[in-house]
Design goal:
- The chain has 4 helices and 3 strands, in the order αβαβαβα.
- The chain is of the alpha/beta class.
- The chain has a domain of 44 residues.
- β1, α2 and β2 form a beta-alpha-beta unit.
């Protein structure tokens, strides 16, 4: 479950970060995700994790790909007790989606 680190973290311009906070927008995004409860989902740039818990409720496994090492560390700590979440601190442009799909049996 996410911890409250949000007040300490500010978006970094060099990463082009913008953090979601509008609950209505978050709800509409999550509702638009068409995924089965037995599927694996990849969240790219989860930031503070505004969507993460809601997305996790809709899938079997959730992989978070976050470039910012501070955010990745916080996400890793926040979801440490959640075996269905894996945090990857990496640039999504170099992330090996093929290897992830193969490891998931796809």
């Amino acid at each position: 479950m996410p911890t409250d680190h949000g007040d300490r973290l500010r978006p970094r311009k060099r990463f082009g970060q913008h953090f979601l906070h509008d609950r209505g927008v978050i709800a509409r995004i999550v509702e638009s995700v068409r995924i089965g409860s037995e599927e694996t989902l990849v969240e790219i740039g989860p930031g503070r994790g505004a969507l993460t818990t809601s997305l996790l409720a809709r899938c079997r496994l959730l992989h978070l790909v976050e470039l910012d090492r501070d955010l990745a560390r916080i996400l890793d700590e926040s979801y440490d007790d959640e075996s269905r979440v894996t945090v990857h601190q990496q640039d999504v442009l170099t992330f090996d989606f093929r290897a992830l799909a193969l490891s998931a049996g796809g």
